[in-house]
Design a protein that fits this description.
Layout (H helix, E strand, L loop, with lengths): L3 E12 L9 H4 L5 E12 L3 E8 L7 E8 L3 E10 L1
Antiparallel strand pairs: 1-2, 1-5, 2-3, 3-4
Length: 85
């Protein structure tokens, strides 16, 4: 029998960005957020955000490494993929 071990999340989201040069206002008036696609281990979700991590530990299942918090206001769409062992 197969068992579910980990869940991977893919998040399409809009991110802030900055450029440290001087521009005329007319040249920056229509800039838009950067659209990113991020994949990581699904840690949790709550009313404010979805949380992913880059790493999980087989010998310490209650720990993760490099958590990433993406606010729901930035999320365009997201998916969960089940990993079968």
């Amino acid at each position: 029998m197969e068992k579910t071990k980990n869940r991977i999340a893919e998040v399409l989201w809009e991110d802030a960005w900055v450029d440290c040069n001087d521009y005329e206002t007319k040249d920056v008036a229509n800039l838009i957020p950067v659209v990113r696609r991020t994949v990581g281990y699904f840690v949790s979700k709550n009313s404010k955000c979805i949380i992913l991590s880059t790493d999980k530990y087989d010998n310490a299942p209650d720990f993760v490494n490099t958590p990433m918090v993406i606010p729901w206001g930035c999320v365009v769409e997201w998916w969960i993929y089940e990993c079968i062992e």
